Amino acid sequence: MLIHDVDFAQMYRDHMRQSDRAAKTASSWDARAKELKGKPLQSEYASQFVAHMDLTDAHTLLDVGCGTGTIGITVAPHLQQVYGLDYSAEMLARMQEHAVEAGLTTVATLNKSWYDDWSDVPVCDIVVASRSSLVADMQDALQKMTSKATKRCYMTHLVDGHFGDAAIADVLGKQKRGLPDYIYIVNILFSMGFHPRIDYLCFPGRLAGTKSVEEFIGKVEWTFGELTTQQVNALQEWYAEDDERAQQGGGDTRWAMISWDVDKVGR
């Protein structure tokens, strides 16, 4: 078998089905958005993401799974129009609030998901999907992104299939297999005729830096879903065993930043 004989799109779909991580509903993200109200957008992640972008000759941008506008709002001052697309109405409301605070009048929002009809989504010079790529069908998502871009696309996806907390997954007895790795995306794009570029972004995990075991368990529950009493007890023991390890929260999170030129597809 040669690489051209491998159906990476189907392999991704099979892997995603076998993952034990439940997809979050729009209402879950609505609740999360309310917790983020008033929090600033600036972060080391946003700085690194934007630093790897090429905005040359670009005037418009579509931010898929935009959340509160971490990327879209950051680059909006350099563009004529930014569209934020998300299935959480509350996240979109936060994005609009950030736009108003920044004095931006060039930000519009679209209440849609990866799985909705995108026929009325505007075509833009650049399309980004920042930390929003956990979809059931990656090939379909990549085709949607590419169909709405005239110049370039950017996506960040997990490295190693864990949010920097493989050790915690082990404590909980969850996600032994992990989520599909970024390498699927590289190979799917290759099969589509693109030659993607890859950079790596590394940050402390989302479970790092908690001030108490209660805060730590709350973050774990957001990441993994509802916990049993036995799992809570196991986390309490893990947290108490090693203070330094507890502060690290199970390790760093690494993201692969994948980009491809839509107007230079190799056919």
The Cα radius of gyration reads 19 Å
Task: Determine the structural class based on helices, strands and strand pairing.
Answer: alpha/beta
User: Span from first to last CA?
Assistant: 22 Å
Please give the count of helices. 11
| Overall shape | globular
Mean pLDDT: 90
User: Spans with pLDDT under 50 lasting ≥5 residues?
Assistant: none
Q: What is the succession of H and E elements?
A: HHHEHEHEEHEHHEHHHE
Question: How would you describe the overall organization of this protein?
Answer:
The chain has 267 residues and is α/β, with parallel strands linked by helices. Helix content is 39%, strand content 19%. It has 11 helices and 7 strands. It has a 7-stranded mixed beta sheet, sandwiched between helices. Helix 2 packs parallel to helix 5. The mean pLDDT is 90.
Describe, in short, the structure shown.
The protein is an alpha/beta fold and 267 residues long. The protein contains eleven helices and seven strands.
Task: Show the helix and strand layout.
Layout: H1 8-18, H2 26-36, H3 44-51, E1 60-64, H4 72-75, E2 81-86, H5 89-101, E3 107-111, E4 124-129, H6 138-147, E5 149-158, H7 166-172, H8 183-191, E6 197-204, H9 213-224, H10 229-241, H11 243-248, E7 252-261
Parallel strand pairs: 1-2, 1-4, 2-3, 4-5
Antiparallel strand pairs: 5-7, 6-7
Helix pairs in contact: 1-8, 2-5
List keywords for this structure.
267 residues, 7 strands, alpha/beta
